[in-house]
What does this fold into?
Amino acid sequence: MKVIRRRNPKNRKTIEERQSPKPNSEDRVSIPLSKSLGENLKKLKAFLEESTDAVFREFKLGGLGISCALVYIDGLIDKTVVHEAILKPLMYEASELNKERTIEVDQDKVFDFVKEHAVTVADIKEAESLDKAILFIMSGEAALLIEGYDKILVISARGWPARGVSNADDEEVIRGPKEGFTETLRVNTALVRRKCKDPNMVIRTIKLGRRSKTDVAYIYIKGITREELIKEVEERLNEIDIDQVIDSGQLEQLIQDNNMTPFPQVQATQRPDKTVASLLEGRIAILVDNSPYALLVPATFNQFFQSPEDYNERWIVSSFLRLVRWISSFVAVFTPAIYIAVLTYHPSLIPTKLALTISASRAGVPFPSLIEALLMESTIELLRESGARLPKAIGQTIGIVGGLIIGDAAVRAGITSPITVIIVAITAIASFVIPTYSAAIGLRTMRFPLMIMAGFLGLYGVVIGFILLNIHLVSIKSFGLGFMTPQSPIIINDLKDFVIRAPYRAMKRRPEETDVIDMIRMDM
Amino acid sequence: MKSRQGITSLQATATVVVSILGIAVLIMPSSASEAAGIDGVLATLFGGLVALVLALTAILLGRHYPDYTIIEYSQIILGRLLGKLFGFYFAIYAIATTATVLRGFADAMKVLLLPKTPLEVIMITMLFTVVYQVQGGIGTIARINELFLPPIITIILGLIALNIRDVELFRFRALLSEGVGPIFMSLVNISTGYLGFEIVTFLTPFMADKSKLLKYGLAGVVLTVIVYTALVFVVLGIYGNKTTSDMVYPTVHLARRILWVESFIERFDIFFLTFWILAAYTTITAYMYMASLSVVRLMGLRNYKPFTLILTPIVYIISIIPQNSVQFTLLLNIISYAGLILGFSTIPMLVISKIRKAGTKNG
It folds into this structure.
């Protein structure tokens, strides 16, 4: 797969540069540990003591009397685990073991004893330097320091208040699983794993953000996804050098190919089933901690018109629905422009009776149709935006006040014609049919330049706008994949899952666009 | 995905078709009937065959030099000086054709769609769009062509299909009444309608699978032959050769005849024209691309993109030179014949390169 560089290659760091520690990130400097507990604790306290949520619990190892200290961030750990599985065995049960002399413990074996016999937690790691330990502490692990050792035992006791798995609000389906991703990365990866038990599904995690140290996981299936694509994703993720990774929406913009476009080149989804389906099509999913959206790369324009439901309904129904979506996307973008063009320049295009009705209804309207339509379209955008930010109950009120009352009043006041209101309303409804929010909003913004072109050049302007839009769309790449595939370049096999969703028995092969290794999806 | 690097085979077909289908779509029937009367149908068919042969030689020639465009291999075949002269001729031809097609397009737009809009506005907006497209490179052009081919072909074939039952076959009783003479005489004239196939001389280096250009490129020419012949057949069958000769844009008249859509679209010709803009646009783009690339390759440079911008005002100035339709027709005729000379020039070039190849093999 040819990988298109999205930035000037001169600005790109070489691999060596990237691997060497960055001089500007102070926290990459490794802080060595000493054998003295007091000294280590002092260093840790220097970092954390000012924060009130940091807990330093010093205690003696039961029976042996060796000083230990447990450090964790209150609120990020599960208190039951700390009490029952760390402190209790170390302080109480260890002395029991010692009393019975079942295991010989002397000073130089304490660390291994604690690790192997005392702490009853499954996930245990060791940290050789202080900075690593701090990173673990900040991620919600408990760090156990033992006198006489220059390493720290990191015990996983993560547990924090989190939102449970709930409906995928942005991508509701009638038929299909309802669950959506949550803000916790581990829960999300579990949701993905549950849908596909293939051991070839690899979940790899890196930390991004110089200060935020956000966990970012990327998931792919070995043997399906192309190596080059995996490498390209890794390269783009590693290239990111920013203080905080807030959300997948931000990450999406940091790894996308083309910045000068309103169209998303990465598909964001809330649905685990969609994510797994994409993985099986040779794509890569990127999950960001604290974000309930998975990013699927590479993305095509076609994908934004697909809904998971299409695969759960009979193919004739799904194909019909897809056709509705494609037509409505055209309606959402072009109807107001065509309306203006026809009204201003080519009234002869429409039947005479209709032309007469329209001109009669516009008799009292003081503005040219371009201004009139622009006004009404702007109002709709205003209503949509104000409704989106408000609580649901008030949002509905805004809808009723805006849609019904203002629309009706504007017509009665003679500012606009009823036909314009109809056109604008149809456009607005049509734009909500597209299943992917970010694609829909990108397409919707295209309306305004098109309307202006129609106002100046009639249908010719609309066609020029159409051409420009298409030039733009075909020139976009998403991780080296043409945005308009499988329409252009045409891939016959992939056209089966385009406007028409072919029956399953006809789609025995995976899509070719992602250039998967294992093409056979079905063998029956 | 390796096979999808560069221009795919289907994109090559699409590029050939949409480069040929341009303003000739509107005027082909009248020029055919003017040249050969009712025999214009056969003349269109045989003119298309001439174009097919020329495209075939051009592609065969390109196969000998798969990494070069005609600008470079003409210098290898004809020698440096003659080759440069040929390249210069090609560049001038491509620039002039871009301007002429642009003007022809704008004239038609003004007459048929936007009577009150200044010609300059139509030309400048079109030129801007074309330049934006050409800046994107041949890959984008090929993808756009692939996207626009279905609507263009659909609307023309739809136009033909909607009118075909009104064809009065008795008009064709006079077919060949004057022997093959008029057809033969008009052949050269008619084959200018197929100009645009020169694009194949520029495609080879960019093809994903160079061996497929022959098959898929020629398929494109064949498709246009079918479309043009059917179009001329329908127009002549409905209007007869006398009326057709007098029409400026007979195809548009054909579109106006369509009545059954009256209940929804009153005037089908406007609807047809909006699609035809796509056809004209792709033709202008193809020539603009050829012009920029030939100028740059002539100078031995690689990046043509800045030169597109330099050529833009030149194209614009040439396109506003004709003061009336008589002057425009003259310009159109001049560049058509210049294009045909170019088309035929590939035959001696192919012969020379064959002889050379044979010579090197024997020696």
Q: What stands out?
A: Residues 7-351 of chain B form a domain with the Amino acid/polyamine transporter I fold (CATH 1.20.1740.10). Chain B touches chain A at residues 1-2, 4-5, 8, 10-11, 109, 113-114, 117, 121-122, 125-126, 129, 132-133, 136, 140, 143-144, 146-148, 262-267, 270-271, 273-274, 277-278, 281 (CB under 8 Å).
